[in-house]
Amino acid sequence: MKEFVMEDVDSESGSPSKSERKRQMTTLQKWGEVLVALPKERLKKLSLPDKLYSAVEEAQRMTAHGGLRRQMQYIGRLMREIDAEPIVAQLENWQTHERQDNARFHRLEIWRDRLIAEDDALPAVLAIYPGIDVQPLRTLIRNARKEKNAGSAPKSSRALFKLLRAADERTDDGAGEWVDDVNQGAEPVTENDTPDD
Known about the structure:
- The chain folds into 2 domains: 65 residues, Diphtheria Toxin Repressor, domain 2 (Orthogonal Bundle); 86 residues, Diphtheria Toxin Repressor, domain 2 (Orthogonal Bundle), CATH 1.10.60.30.
- 16% of the residues are buried.
- The protein has 197 residues and is mostly helical.
């Protein structure tokens, strides 16, 4: 019977195998690419060692593909020499916030488009954002529909989006759960609705 040996750990020394070290190196190099893509303001917020910070700045100035590839490998090597966990944790945190902001923006765009296209979307929005001022909302919807039909600039549509965004920022208590209802075209359930037994 053939004995199974784990590939990720060197059986003699207990240290990571060559394959595992290569995976770790590739992962850190990818995080290095994220560092290079950061704007300077964000890069300064990270507490990078001077050598790594200089290497990232140098990579941001490079245009030659071969030189940039070598610089990325160098950044990956520098990241292996330090404790990269706090840096990676902060980068992941920023990426999570960016994804959440993008999802919120997309959700608000969907609601705005639904309000313009469908008459029955208004009660759903009022259920989500009970504190929203109804009169300006209706005026903006009406004007956005007129602009869309006339083919003119979407001034009211933009203002409608801003109104929804302001209401969403004030509410900020889980309005994100309505995304699935919007995508499926379903009406959201309010607290007064009772399920049929």
